[in-house]
Amino acid sequence: MKIHAHAESHIVELDDGSCWQIFPGDLATTLSWKPETNLHLEPSSSRVSSHVLVNGTDHSRVRVIAAGESWSDGEVKKVLKGE
C-alpha cells in the first residue's frame, strides 16, 4: 500500500482508503515516509495498538490504531516511560 495522505503528523491515509492513527512515540519514524513509501499492515500483539504499519524498504514499524479510536492514556504513558 502507498500513502494517499499524511497531512497531519499523527494520521496517515493509505491508498486502500483506510486511515490510521500513529502511536505518539513512533511519530519520528514516519518523518522519512514519502508518498511512494511502500507500507503493509500487520496485526499487532502490542498492548497499545491493534496493528503495525511496516515500511517495506527499511522494515521500520510504527504502532497504529484505526483513526477515530482512542489510545488508552495509562498504557501510552507506561510505554513512553519504558515500563
Strand order of the largest sheet: 1-2-3-6-5-4
Rg value: 12 Å
Tell me what portion of residues adopts beta-strand conformation. Answer: 25-35%
| Large-scale geometry | globular
Q: Pairing-aware structural class of the strands and helices?
A: mainly beta
Give the low-pLDDT segments: none
Oligomer: single chain
Main sheet specs:
6 strands, antiparallel
As for the number of domains, it is: 1
Write a short abstract of this structure.
This protein has 83 residues and is mostly beta strands.
Description:
The protein has one domain. The chain has one helix and six strands, in the order E-E-E-E-E-E-H. The chain is about 10% helix and about 35% strand. The protein has about 80 residues and is mainly beta. A hairpin with a 5-residue loop joins strand 5 and strand 6. Strands 1-2-3-6-5-4 form a six-stranded antiparallel β-sheet, with no helix packed on it.
Give the tags:
six-stranded antiparallel β-sheet, single chain, 83 residues, mainly beta, 6 strands, 1 helix
Helices and strands in order:
Elements: E1 3-5, E2 11-14, E3 19-22, E4 39-43, E5 51-55, E6 61-66, H1 73-81
